[in-house]
Amino acid sequence: MILTDPSGLIIDTQGDDRVIDAGRAVHLEHGGRWSEADIGTNAIGAAIAESKPVQIHGTEHFCSEVQRWTCAAVPVHDPTDGELLGVVDISGPASTFNPQSLALAVAVGHHVESVLAQSVRQEHEELLCRFLAKRSQWANDECIVLDRRGMILHATERALNRLQHDRHGIHNDAPTRFLKTVPFDEWPSRLKELLPNASVNFVENERSGIGAIVVLHARRRQLITHRDLQKSRSESEGRETASSSSARKDSRPEPRSLQSPAAGFVARDPAVRAIVRQVETAAVRKMPILIRGETGTGKEQLARHAHMASGRTGAFIPVNCAALPESLIESELFGYAEGAFTGARRGGAIGLVREADGGTLFLDEIGDMPVALQAVLLRLLDDWTVRPVGGVRSKVDVFLISATNARLDKAIAEGRFRSDLLYRLNTLEVTLPRLRDRNDFDAIVRHLLNTIDPNCEITPTDIAHLAARPWPGNVRELRNVLAQFSLAAADGSINEASAENIVHPPETESGSLHDIHRARILVVYAETAGNVSETARRLGVSRNTIYRALGQKKPE
Question: Across the chain, what does the average pLDDT equal?
């Protein structure tokens, strides 16, 4: 067995002494160069060039001296960014050729990547725990947490704006990425070039440095825009008005909303803040999370926040379990090899689970998952190995988050959901409160309206009218109403009549809110030609709400 660096330079060999001695005759030894540029077609060079497992046997080699050998090689990649780290190769005399050698090389390569990924996870967990332990010291400052490769694990919104004005992705193309090639002890000088007013706090374990916490101190900020001041004044006035008119607000200053730059998840309500803290802790430890709550309460936004808090550098892959066709479950989830079946895409498909490798798989509407898919998911959770249709089995590293608005206990009692699956999904189970039960309603309104139209104003009276509504569609419905509000606005403000009509709709003859919502549902139901799913999507409510309004039972 041979290990090379990314250029094909052999850095270690292990195995039978007789084979190792024979390899020296063709420079298959420590210090030997085996790139395609150096020695032509060979497994090591081909694995580097093609970035995939390769088996080269006998006369398939370019050099005649090497044609007495058989080789199987697999590239090993950095689990954080996919960069090539080296190659694992299994070589021997051509007479010992075994087609399973490639599978063995792949298994060894995956094991190496798995060990590296585990090491990275442990470093990230330790780094984030150290940061959280000291976060109170920088309560008024903006912070960036970097791992030892220069990857951003955590950053506040203002810090990201300072660091990266064009707001491209915050991972592999981050402006701190150059630090990967910089010796750790040179970080302060290099970071000073990027952030001249920041302080750098190194974090080390017993072996080496694992990262740094960069603090942009509040007193050193050089730029405060007119819009920042205007927004601060507006929010302050809104809080003062709300506190004088509502008993549910206390006199303490409100903490900063916990927000993920990816999701904009507002959490000023104490109950929601507690949920966020639980989720962040579980995310760092890669514990499966089950998020419950009515439709529109922000389950996916919380899941995205958990993904960011986890420090994982892979993708966040959302999957609507109810939308997966049973006939295509395995190929959708696990992918397929080229030629696996008639009509298979050239080159195959990676599948949703492997897309989430190194990242997070978010299973939305898990309560509506078909029973056949539940069995497939259980197999995956047993060992986290994936076998594409027509392909070979491989290991994946996935952080799992699930969400549902269904009563899973009832579904289990009715045989529609497996209890053994539930126990694998809910290591941490949290329930997001309904919008009408939250006491940070005004903060949510202002945040949503700012994302829809930063120039649109809303009065505390209008917010109070909005707060009095039942909001069966929760935050999703509120966003829809605020979009109507912004459309009705003129020149950055809205006239009193149109505001009153949107935030405090006139009563119908019956005068009941139930009848108002049912009438609205019936209108949209007719507009969509009886499409329940589309009606629910437009109104921002669950399908069950539509069925109840129609007086129908949800089909099994």
Answer: 75
Q: Measuring CA to CA, which residue among 38, 28, 52 is closest to residue 7?
A: 38
89 residue type, one letter: D
Phi and psi dihedrals of 66, rounded to 5? -95, -5
Task: Name the DSSP letter for residue 506.
Answer: P
| Domain boundaries, given as residue ranges, for the chain | 2-118, 140-220, 270-431, 513-550
**Separation CA 359–CA 147 (nearest Å):** 16
d(CA 545, CA 555): 13
Place of tokens 């056949």: 372
Distance CA 333, CA 377 (A): 9
The reply to whether 2-118 and 140-220 are identical in fold is yes
Stated pTM of the model: 0.47
Q: Which CATH architecture has domain 270-431?
A: 3-Layer(aba) Sandwich (3.40)
What φ, ψ does residue 142 adopt, rounded to 5°?
-95, 135
Q: Which residues are CB-contacts of 170 (< 8 A; sequence separation ≥ 6)?
A: 152, 155, 160, 164, 261
Dist. CA 41–CA 481, nearest whole Å: 64
- Over residues 215-230, the mean pLDDT reads 45
Q: What is the dihedral of CA 181, 183, 189, 195, to 10 degrees?
A: 50
* Separation between Cα atoms, residue 10 and residue 176, nearest integer Å: 31
**What are the residues facing 386 on neighbouring strands?**
394
Q: What is the CA radius of gyration of the chain?
A: 28
State residue 82 phi and psi, 5-degree precision: 80, 5
What pLDDT sits at residue 89?
A: 92
d(CA 388, CA 338): 10
d(CA 366, CA 402): 6
Measured from the Cβ of residue 380, the count of other Cβ atoms closer than 10 Å reads 19
- Give the number of other CB atoms < 10 A from CB of residue 112: 18
Query: When comparing pLDDT for 222 and 411, which is higher?
Result: 411
Q: Which CATH class is domain 140-220?
A: alpha beta
Arch. (CATH architecture) of 2-118: 2-Layer Sandwich (3.30)
Burial class (CB in 10 A: 0-12, 13-18, 19+), 296: buried
Tell me which CATH code domain 513-550 carries: 1.10.10
Interacting residues of 23 by C-beta distance below 8 A, sequence separation 6+: 13, 29, 91
